[in-house]
Write a structure and sequence with these properties.
457 residues, alpha/beta, five-stranded mixed barrel, 19 strands, 34% helix, globular
Length: 457
């Protein structure tokens, strides 16, 4: 969970400041929902007349969109804020995100900040800043608004938030405390934003939310369910891929699986958080499924969608987890054959039931289990990647590999592929024959018909 700098159009191009326009640096930690919301803020600040600069540059305003999903995430939030302030001494500070929410609930101290913005009003951060610092407002020369596009203008893929909030109240998770109850964006707003993304030339949309499977009429969509919304997004001219960021296993319904199977534009990739392979531990976690149901969902998905990649999150060392419970998790990993897994050591979150549960697992045992599980997950990932060798994959070229002359991009199943080709192909779908695979990526050769591929305008 690394801090992600976000560059706007001026920061990306390296343009100089016009006159005395104030500058702003942004840094994001955590989930794709946070990344989306930061990009919305970047767009708002730019339209108001701010110059957006990289986090490493000196800035008049530093904006940190923080995370508190684990103790490590909070620590990284503190470190990111210190780095921003060290490089921009005397800057106005806007601090928002789940770290702010958690601190407000627990009474934990936060670093001194010009503006603290709760999650519920995050997108109003600029207004709160200018209220606190009217001197900055006097330096702004607003730019013409133009077409509204509050999604990423930096990458080939655009993140599109359609839902916020969660009511599952898992015993280990603080997100319901920091994000509130589930609520869906009206489908009309989502589709309008997606059409703007398509107009910008972006080829792939990543649909994200906190509890994505709760999207629907009961939480404010205006009618469509999640499968309905995905089909509508896939039908937008210019959008060649629609990807789900993460969905709870109990929300991977037959209707959703049918939508993926029947709609080629929907990516062959599902991220289904397992968390534990032990039904006993899942019950203690408050998860709304058990081991057998999780495996059955994966089997159904793999049967209906050939070539589907299933990725996951797993927690080790949950209070009361025994070696026998842990062995069951290892068995599920080998049974399902995940294309990629994220392994987390359990971290107590203030205000959650598990934080005060007896039978806490020692840090040493958590570390040992994390190493063992990571090795098993890596073996399954390598096996999955090796099965791609010799196949033809459509790769969305996203840019040159750092430090090399190769192009890099992702397949529909979210495999990173490198291959030789001209930079003009960035933003295009390229047919690539997979020649080999290693840790976390594959490599291949562009097929002859791809030589004539027209670059994205």
């Amino acid at each position: 969970m690394n801090a992600a700098p976000v560059l706007g159009r001026l920061g990306e191009a390296g343009a100089e400041a016009p006159g005395s326009a104030p500058s702003a640096a942004f840094c994001t930690l955590g989930c794709k929902v946070n990344q989306y919301e930061t990009q919305r803020l970047v767009d708002t600040f730019e339209r108001a007349g701010f110059r957006v600069v990289p986090p490493g540059a000196r800035a008049d305003v530093c904006v940190l969109n923080s995370c508190s999903v684990t103790a490590t995430a909070e620590q990284k939030s503190r470190q990111a804020l210190r780095r921003l302030l060290r490089r921009s001494e005397g800057a106005a500070v806007v601090l928002t995100g789940c770290w702010v929410e958690m601190a407000r609930r627990t009474g934990a101290p936060l670093p001194e900040s010009s503006v603290l913005v709760p999650n519920a009003t995050k997108l109003e951060a600029l207004d709160r800043l200018l209220e606190a610092r009217p001197d900055l407002a006097s330096r702004l020369a607003r730019r013409p608004t133009g077409a509204s596009l509050p999604a990423s203008l930096v990458r080939t893929r655009a993140v599109l938030k359609v839902q916020d909030g969660c009511d599952q109240h898992c015993a280990f998770c603080s997100i319901p405390l920091t994000r509130g109850a589930p609520r869906s964006r009206p489908a009309s707003d989502v589709l309008a934003e997606a059409r703007a993304v398509a107009t910008s030339g972006r080829r792939e949309i990543v649909v994200t939310g906190v509890l994505l499977g709760s999207y629907g009429p009961d939480t404010g969509s205006g009618g469509p369910s999640l499968p309905d919304l995905l089909r509508a997004l896939a039908a937008i001219e210019g959008i060649e891929r629609v990807r789900l960021s993460s969905i709870e296993p109990n929300h991977a319904t037959p209707e959703l699986l049918d939508a993926i199977a029947e709609t080629p534009t929907l990516c062959r990739h599902l991220h289904l958080p397992l968390q534990s392979g032990s039904s006993r531990v899942l019950a203690a976690m408050g998860r709304p499924y058990r081991r057998e149901a999780f495996v059955a969902t994966c089997r159904d998905a793999q049967r209906l969608v050939p070539g589907l990649a299933i990725t996951t999150d797993i927690i080790v060392g949950f209070p009361g987890e025994t070696r026998s419970d842990f062995a069951e998790t290892l068995a599920v990993v080998r049974d399902v054959g995940f294309a990629r897994s994220h392994v987390f050591r359990y971290s107590a979150r203030p205000g959650t039931p598990a934080a005060t549960t007896p039978d806490q697992v020692s840090d040493e045992e958590k570390e040992a289990r994390a190493r063992e599980l990571s090795e098993a997950c890596r073996a399954e990932q390598e096996r999955w990647l090796r099965a791609l060798v010799g196949t033809r994959q459509q790769v969305l070229a996203e840019g040159k590999e750092a430090g090399g002359g190769l192009l890099a991009g992702y397949t529909s199943s979210y495999v990173r592929v490198t291959f030789a080709g001209p930079r003009a192909l960035v933003g295009s779908m390229v047919g690539v024959r997979i020649l080999g695979a290693g840790v976390d990526q594959a490599w291949g050769q562009m097929e002859a018909e791809a030589q004539a591929a027209r670059p994205n305008p």
